[in-house]
Description:
The protein is of the alpha+beta class. It has 9 helices and 21 strands. The radius of gyration is 24 Å and the shape is globular.
Amino acid sequence: MIDLKRYQEAMKKLPEGAVEAEVNAETHDIVMVTVCKQELIDVQCASQTALFVRVSGEKTGYVYTQNLEEDAGKVLAQAYANSALSDKENPETMNRLADVQNYGDEQAVCDAAVLKEKAGKIASELENEIARQIENRCREGKANVTVTARLKAETYGQHTVNSHGLDVNSAKPVYILSLTGELPWKGAPVCVVLELASGDVESFDLEYAARNLAERIVWQMDPVKKFESGDYPVILSDEAVYTLFATGWQEFSACKYADGASALAGSLGEKIAGEVLSIVDDPDLGGKGFPMSCDAEGSKGEAVTLLDHGIFTGMLHNTSSAERLSCANTGNAGRRPLLFGNIATDILVTPKNFCFQPGTSSLRELEEHMGNGILITEYMDVFHTLDVSSGEFSAPCFGVRIEDGKETENLTALTVSGNFRQMLSDVLEVGRDHALRPMIDLENYGIAPCALRVASLNVSGE
């Protein structure tokens, strides 16, 4: 826990005109190893502490610093002075609960030798299992699969204090397993990447990882481009759902809902999706997810059901949106909800662990139930596929043709398009494969997707 007593003392006498202040300290202590063929490829260690300071009067101003020795009073004064530069009309609302809470101090495994042994064992097991699955499906002889495993262990800490007496801190471990599977194939290697997240280094689902990587390698072997465009029954693989919801989760942001900037605006309490679909945002998945016991404002992370059997029942709230909509705060205040080129200081809404509730059907069973249609295997564009306001989406992708419930040919140079809200209402079935992924590139919250069988989407080809 970072000592913020100097800031607590300085907050007793805020700059003239300031009415409230907050300091959020973030710590990231990281050890990361990369292993291939039992050989240690790379070891990296990093430690970073940052302070995000905001002070409000007529508007809210920010200061970001990594200098923990700066004069606290001067930092608060600078944040308040910066409020004059804000282009927002009103100040942001801060957490006004005088809560004093310690959510734990747990450390990640930081021994590089231990992490190397774990990563090497994972890579070796997956190489053998992926090769076996590819050989069983393709019957093309021995599959010489290489798996590179990168295992990152991070202790993520937060300590937040404010001028209303709040003093909340937490330190928890999170592990990111990045797997790269590569198969030499006709002069053009097939390479796929999978990232998994967990709060426990022993809880990665390696059966899921082997199945995911093996299928995605097979789906990219010998694709054809010839395709007749049209509306088709579709299965969105869990990989495609993960990529779509890398931006699609914003439809459930209360801030966007209140601004009318979500395609779901005005429909809270209504049935907007197939009754088989439920989504929950959870603080830590029982210790197995990203550690979000408290958010960047010091609010307690609450589990919130967003979709309950197709009914839109909840949204992701920070303090400002909760006050604005007279709702309970769900503890979803954060920074960097998507990629930014600059340091993100503004408090926004982010998920914690955004989880689809799995169904009972395997991917093979989803294909059998669909009969004829297209399996969308993965999107080729992450952050430009969905217009959150309108719900319209269009994404370049790979696919597989399904005929009589069986995979027949791999397809490339496809584009799948539709409307997000209409797609939700057309969901017929949810797959059972389910694993928590870190948010693409940011690794600051998780998404746990499932495959979705959808009545119809437009699929076009060259």
